[in-house]
Write a structure and sequence with these properties.
57% helix; mainly alpha
């Protein structure tokens, strides 16, 4: 297994995304709500 090294900018983005995702319940409904808010940012 290889280790991925992230830049400080990437680490900051990971923290922002993680903190945002924590706002949603850890259920199927929460997963759906989270994915709906990210839909516009996803590649096709």
């Amino acid at each position: 297994m290889s280790v991925i090294e992230l830049s400080s900018e990437q680490l900051q983005m990971v923290k922002i995304i993680h903190e945002y995702a924590l706002q949603f319940p850890r259920t199927e409904t929460g997963d759906a709500q989270l994915l709906q808010t990210y839909y516009d940012y996803m590649d096709g």
